[in-house]
Batch of 2 targets.
Target 1
Amino acid sequence: MNGGGAEGVYVGQPGDLRGVRRFSHEAMATVYEVYAVHDDRQYAAQAAHASFDLVDRLERELSRFLPNSDVTRINHLAAGERTRVARSTLECLAIARDMFDLTGGAFDVSIGTGLASLDLDPDDSTVHATASGVQIDLGGIGKGYAVDLMADTLEEWDVPLSLAHGGFSSLLALDPPADRDGWPLTLSDPGDPSRVLAQMSVRQTALGASGVRKRDHIVDPRTGAPVRGRRAAWVALNRPPAAPADVAESRPRMAAVADALTTACMLMHVDDIDALCRNGDGVEAWILEETGLLHFGERTESRHGQ
Amino acid sequence: MGSNDRPKTLDRREVLKGLSTLPALGLFGYAWQKQRAYQQARVAEATATAQAPADLQVINIALIGAGAQGQVLTDAMLRIPGLRFRAVCDIWTEYNQKRMVNSLKRFKHEPNAYEDYREMLDKEKELDAVVIATPDFWHAQHAIDCLKAGTHVYCEKEMSNTLEGARKMVAAQRETGKLLQIGHQRRSNPRYLHCYDKILKQAQMLGRIVTVYGQWNRGVTPDLGAPDRYVIPQERLTQYGFKDMHQFRNWRWYKGKGGGPIVDLGSHQIDIYSWYLGANPSHVMASGGNLYYDPKTHEWYDTVMAVYDYDTALGPAKAYYTTQTTNGSQGYFENFMGDQGTLLISESEVNYAGQLYRDPNAPAWDEWIQKGYVSAPKEQEAKAKSESGAIADVRESVAPDQHTVPVTLRDPYHQPHLQNFFDAVRGKATLNCPAEEAFQTAVAVLKVNDAIEAKMPLAFKPEDFKV
């Protein structure tokens, strides 16, 4: 897989927060969690588990290790064949394709096997292969997408003072506890987790982390070669307010976007990362190179401080 | 694209081209615009049924019960060509019903929404079939009224929470002549069918099955809840037989509504015991209790261990089944142990998806390997070449044979069973789990709860399994 998420447990966890309830669930080979402030523990647990149910459903659809998942069926398509997939699978693929376009192919869920050969038909929720042999792996975006859906569920359940994450590498902070201006987070060195590189306090923010531990590597989908010299990348994005229901079904999936962009940031030229953060309002990125931490962009809305 | 076609370096012009779309919009704008464009379904000629061959008869269907299981069935049905959703009925109009109708509309269906299934049956005169995924205590009435209204019925298991209800369902099916398929979906699973037809019946690879073991273990989960803003008014809950919202969401745990984990989970697998053994049980003894959860909200047993006696055509057999809801270790599977081999199988495509072990003294399986009934063992036996006249080729030690069942399901788990039902509606198949068959499973499974209460073995009479 080209990246990411699975290795990158570098978003520090919230410290000792009074009144914050924590719920955990194993899925997608990691642990998903909800941190929530709510008077009723049972209600908060039910809301958290409703969000975990969604993650389990997504795993059944998105896992390339399950013989009857949507992704496996897509990976078995021959030229000219089509398969119907869950709407969530199609949306995740659509975001992946947009991120491919945005990053010039640095983020590629097909790892160079030809994402362009998959036609997505949102009307019919089908994926149509125009060539054989396309192999997709949504590992670099699926966790973020799952966290986006978890946040929707928490809001539906009126649990707005909450945070959801998948393995700490994809995280979405909603509103913070009442006595705080944000959820406290740290970014640390994957080679030495005790070395904190940055501290921040975020709200309505999506964060993604990607990185490599010793002897691991990320493959550049454009060259097939391992990436050297860059050890970790983080991307933070402001989460916009909900749109009116008649405009869009849901908010933009910013955790999925952040997840994808961190993988791309492991590969992109620093000038391009800088351009992304300057052009993209509310985008912030950190790159850990052998020479040290580079920081790009500013986000005012989330009131982060270092 | 071959590896030679790949750009050798990350093409920065491509990146900049991508980024150039950003300044006017910002990243939110970009993501939003892209995702809105995706979400606003474009006008297209393709419709959900357009994929179906022109001569395929369109089946008009309704769904009663749009909860978690109704969603699972619908996800599978959306992949079956030639179905047209005409109605969705659910008493949770604020949530399940609304979500299901919206979801189906995105697939170009235009279902009418109902709270009361009677009103639905009165108004929807073109229904060919109804799929029922309501709480067990509603199954009999829903299924019988749909059959009598002239529709075929696919009803989730357990077919009823009472034998009286199940018996009436069989009677209504016979009286109306309509199809009634019960949702023991393993009966249509290609791996289970392969194991039954080829491995057990034709090749008899296990020899005589003497013992069976199976389990479904689940970890601790909180009771199901509902978002505060979508709670059903008490009047409506009472009208449909629920004392409160908690009972509505957690009916499986309540006496008179569901049957607890032995029925929710065990029923699927005990159904396979009887199918594969070719017999109904003669006795059952069971122990169970509410060891963990609050008995006020969990009236049924959270832990059950049951032992069945069978008199099979080949001789007596015992089958053990356990389900517990406090630790999910090793999940669910069925293990059939014969004097010549073992079959470990589960519905899961990942865990225990069909492994076979041959007893070293059993006849060779070469023929069945050649026929493709089972995979070749991981390590070939160190056979001496026959022309050499030697009896053995001496070499490093060889592991015992391990084989797998070479059948993989690519579709959602419930799709084959639903497909079988709709094929039968079109007159092109016979049901894999008709009401009479499921009734026998209900008899075997519901008796476990009786045996726990009785604290002694209970006997089945052959006529218990007949309607």
Target 2
Amino acid sequence: MGRRSLDTNKKNISYLAGIAVAIILPLVIRLTGAYWAHILILIGIYAILATSLNLIMGYTGQADLAHSALYGVGAYTSGIIAIRFGINFWITLPIAGLVAVAIGSILGLITLRLRGTYFALACSAFLFLMSMVFTNLRNLTGGIQGLLFIPSASIGGFVIHQKDKIIWTYIVFAVLLLTIFVVDRVVHSRVGRALIAIREDEDLAKSTGVNTFWYKMIAFVVATFFAGVSGALFATYNGMVTPANFDIILFFMIVAACFIGGLGTLLGPVIGAVIVVLLPEILRVTGQYYFVIFGVFIIAATLFAPDGVIGLVTKARKKLARRQQKAVD
Amino acid sequence: MGTKRLKTLVTALFTSVVIAILIITSGCSTKTSTQATGTGEAKIFNLGAILPESGWGSSFGVPAMDGARLAVSQINDAGGFTVNGQKYKIQLHEYDGGDPTKEAAGATQLVQAGCSIILYEGSSDSAVQAVTEPAKSLLIIAGAPPTVTGQGIKYTFCIENSAMGSAFWPAMLSGPGGSTLFTGIKTVGILTENYSTCVFARPGFIDACKAKGFNVVFDETVESDTTDFSAVVAKLKKADPDILFFNSTASSTVLNLFPQMAEQNYYPVTFGYDSLLSRPPAIKQIATSGANGTVEMCGGGDVANGVGALLPDWASSMLGIDKTKLASYTQGMATSYPGNDSGAALTYYDFTYAMVYHMVKANSLDPDAIAASMTSGAVYNGGGGIYKWYKENHMMPYNVVTARVENINNKTGDCILDFIGGGTPIDYTYNNWNFTVKTQIDVQKTRSRAALVNVPQN
Amino acid sequence: MELFIQALAAGLVIGCVYCLISIGLTMIFSIMRIVNFAHGEFFMLGGYIGWFVVNHYVSNYWLAVLIAVLAGGILGFLTEKIYSRVYGKNLLSMFMISLGLVLILQNGSQIIFGAMSRSLFNFYPTVREIGFVRINDQRLIIVGATIMAIAGVLLFFKYTKMGKAMRATAGNRRGAGVVGIKAERMSMFAFIGGIALTALAGVLLAPLYSLLPTIGDRLTGVAFTCIVIGGIGSIGGAAIAGFAVGIVENIFGTYFSTAWAFAPMFVLLLLVLVVKPLGLFGKEVA
């Protein structure tokens, strides 16, 4: 009993620390300029997307290549219903999540019985199909030009424009904390244990009576909800969405974020998102060569740090502990 | 220490490191090219440029940025420009717009750096505008849909109006006052590239065709980088329109469509927009004999790309182009900018010079004064064309010249251009034109392009 | 009817190219279990290398083909070196490597060759009329080369020692190891052969269609569709699937919408995965 309350105590401290950082950070960033505030918001949105993807990829071990398509579904949904029906942002946000869940569930029903590579391929087919849908259904999605002039969020009469960076930062970070909280709850529940069991050895899990299909579906539902939500955040913040915003490059970024940060950890995707959004900025001076350098970076990260930043930190900590132990002996 | 607390500590540490990096690198995100202002006299004028140098748009963005850089260095080397008695040298702030999610942020950064004029091309026009309009920064774009310069927009200027495609093509078909380039049209086909300006032009064009009683028998859209047109050609052969408009500016459309049509021995009468003539020599080099006989249309802004020197006198005077000046201009560009293989470079080179021209003309750096100068009918006669903006929609009059392409040499791409007509829009709506037809083409008599050409297909 | 036969013929020619790429991929996949999402990039590189040879060295198509194939082999060798380091680890590590490769190869090509399209000069443009069909010599060359390649590959796997060893490794890696077949060597040859075939497809198609750095993306999807439909581990299956996909794609594009021309392929992939994941000729592998 005592130990559990100590753990939750430490967890609460983590959350408080997270909230404190979230409060102070935007103000500090504001000092350095609106550009970095925008970067911070992008980091937040990508972090939500990566955290949700991590539930499927990191904790359940499934290669979900369709995730950015569901982000796109969320973005377009919130944009379309805001433009056509004038529904305000606070309602389009959860609706976008639910629509993403609906479509994600259909995808999941079709594909979650498949294993490994087959599942990855099915998801990638879905990704390409959705991209064609975004581009070709001109009347619905605005086609290649996309949705323009998506109404901004507003509270009562007060409109939150794109330039109100601090408010947007808080909105995005609030949602990010919620996402991490939900994923944390899922992971540390019976569902989470089942997911990890599936990741480690699906056949074994099945043979012990775990209904792997339904647990995977649960992970899918949770993850796609937040994918849709992050899409709605992006659409309303940016004011416009085009199919170019949801191409394969975005997916690469999100997967790289999960991987570089550390698969199967709570904070990994967040750290990964920071790296993946900041790296282009730091490498901006290289111009055309940026993507090549990023590719080399990804390969190096895969070969030398497959457990991501969190993995490196854990290894370093273990080494330190061992050294301390040796010093004691 | 417990795991969780260590994790918190690590997070906090990491975040503070991140903040530190951000603060340190916040000055490094834009590239600026300065000329030494050691004269002590000249002040800095901040010019911004958001162009896609990485990623998908880089085939446009890289030469465009080069063009702007060249102009800036030439202007500064010549001593800069003078407004209100004060000398200015330009500092170019470059921002790579390769990632569409960051274009608007780039605009924010440039505005904060003091850029009162920003050259731009990308995929987030309205997001960037949302930054530049309130900041009163002039936004200069090569091509964008009409929404970008619509009602109430004060500080955005654009060359290419996608809607005009839907206005002046029908004008080519049957011009005002009975002047018609093509006669005898009953059926029409249109092949559209899934690219913003082309997609936007399509509905207006189809409506105009219907209004003139033409039957649209072929209407397909292809992706921008399509190279396999076998399905398209097969469908075309079946539909067999009297005339085909290829509504595409992608070089890959022209390079692949024509040879594949030739392979199927199908040479419809074709009419294209900006695809062959205004493209750089590298593209012309590859156009095969399949393109002989196509009628090409090019606009004033792109004429310098090799066509200008071939213009007949009536076309030059219509476009207001001084041919000797044009020749020395293209020669000068070729020498100082050897990578001159794209209209993008010339356009943004001209943009830079044009903006300087307007600032000097307005004798002011105030955006309202500059915008007023631009819409007053003041003309910057660049090498690439005439730069003058309508005050109603901040778009340029897009004078067009049409020519029939003949005698294409497969290896070198040289060809003969038979100029058959041209016109200038009378107003900003593009619905009324002063159009002159030199050679009329009866599509019923010359049912295929092959018959249009004097020399047999090689 | 004439339209249908023309569409069939065009689809068949493209199908040949898909066929070669899919065989290349199935060789790699069945032996190494590597999901190489960068597969299409090697097709693109094959085309560009051929273009480079013709434009900058000797204006001889066959030399260009040879060099492209050799370059493909070398690239395969190098790529295998990278992939072998993550062999056996999770799918995601493999995916990350292929992602990195896509970025490097595609953007590297864009930097080296430029983002504007390039064309490899067509040395065999003569058009022949075969019944209703008009087809130029280069397309006939593609068909001929594909037939020879398929025959060669099948014979190789059926009759040569190396081929049998590779099949053994694909079927049961550990079992093959027991009888002394070094899996690493088999992987090496699988990669070299597979990528060389893909590069060959690229240089064969290059004279007909423009080269762009992005043409590989779609082909990766096509290759995976084909090996799933045909069944992983089956060369014949990959070949048949290649022809099928090419024909279906072209007929769909001709009779329906060209904007959605690539959609049936993905729908087909999903259908096959759901109904019969092992594909037409797939074998359950250890």
